[in-house]
Amino acid sequence: MNASQAQTPPPQSSAILVVDDSSTIRRSAEIFLSQAGYSVLLADDGFEALSCIVDHEPALVFCDILMPRLDGYHTCSLIRTSERFRKLPVVLLSSRDGIFDRARGALAGASAYLTKPFAKDSLLRTVRELLPPPAF
């Protein structure tokens, strides 16, 4: 390795992290995102998500709100308190679509809110609003 390689930081991941305790939701999002050219990381709870974020530095996170152990609101809040990850886009996923739920998501620092079950078009539209297009 030469000196210029040693000083160049590794590129930020272009992966999208999907965090949901439902394997059906994780799999659906993985299929939709993969077909659109994104690499996908999966986690089934907030603790696993935080570990994955530190290890892989995803470009965007989709995070379910209602999960055991560490819910999506707290996961999002913890991401926002990190100097390293506070600008990481976090989209909260929920089957609830009330104004209170959306407001609580905004207070936690969510970049967007997507209602489940989501359609492929709405999922990809949300990604396009928050990220540049993938490089093929």
Reported for the largest beta sheet, the result is: 5 strands, parallel
Structural class: alpha/beta
The top level CATH class name: Alpha Beta
CATH homologous superfamily title: Response regulator
Unreliably modeled segments: 1-12
Cα distance spanning the termini = 27 Å
Give the SSE layout.
Layout: H1 3-7, E1 16-19, H2 23-35, E2 40-43, H3 46-56, E3 60-64, H4 72-81, E4 90-94, H5 99-108, E5 112-115, H6 120-130
Parallel strand pairs: 1-2, 1-3, 3-4, 4-5
Helix pairs in contact: 3-4
Q: Overview of this structure, please?
A:
This protein has 136 residues and is α/β, with parallel strands linked by helices. It has one domain (13-127): Rossmann fold, CATH 3.40.50.2300. 44% of the residues lie in helices and 16% in strands. The chain has helices at 3-7, 23-35, 46-56, 72-81, 99-108, 120-130; strands spanning 16-19, 40-43, 60-64, 90-94, 112-115. A five-stranded parallel beta sheet has the order 2-1-3-4-5, with helices on both faces. Helix 3 packs parallel to helix 4. The chain is globular and about 30 Å long. The protein starts with a helix and ends in a 6-residue tail after the last helix.
